[in-house]
Design brief:
single chain; two-stranded antiparallel ribbon; 4 strands; alpha+beta; 4 helices; two-stranded parallel ribbon
Length: 130
């Protein structure tokens, strides 16, 4: 089809996103090869001279959303607060959900629940392999 393609795997954190997540990126153009973007951020632990290189430290979730107001109740607050905060709301977990939360240690995941309490593990989670 006449496209010149550039592809790579980029870490979202290197571009100011407050999460370390690798993504496959494909750029295509008919008027010339497009280079992958140059990172704007980097891991401050691995690159102590990042400011000398013109890079910012990785963004944190706390810095990105730390100034958001705490949700009030479970109602949607359209008209009460400006968007996007109007859709930021809490939830009231069920007793079963609370029991599931207690089974998963800090830093754990759904596989811990399957090992410790398969009786509390939803069928939809049991089918997942990853």
């Amino acid at each position: 089809m006449g496209y010149l393609v550039t592809a790579g795997i980029l870490n979202a954190a290197d571009y100011g996103v407050p999460q370390r997540r690798k993504r496959a990126i494909v750029l295509a153009s008919r008027i010339g090869r497009v280079p992958l973007p140059t990172p704007t951020h980097c891991d401050p632990q691995k690159t102590p001279t990042l400011f000398e290189k013109g890079l910012l430290p990785w963004e944190t979730v706390g810095r990105a959303i730390g100034d958001l107001a705490d949700p009030v109740g479970i109602e949607i607050r359209v008209g009460q607060v400006p968007p996007p905060l109007d859709l930021h709301f809490g939830r009231t977990p069920t007793k079963e959900s609370l029991a599931r939360y207690r089974c998963i240690q800090e830093g754990g995941n759904r596989f811990d629940l399957q090992k410790k309490r398969p009786d509390l593990t939803p069928k939809s989670m049991r089918r997942l392999k990853r």
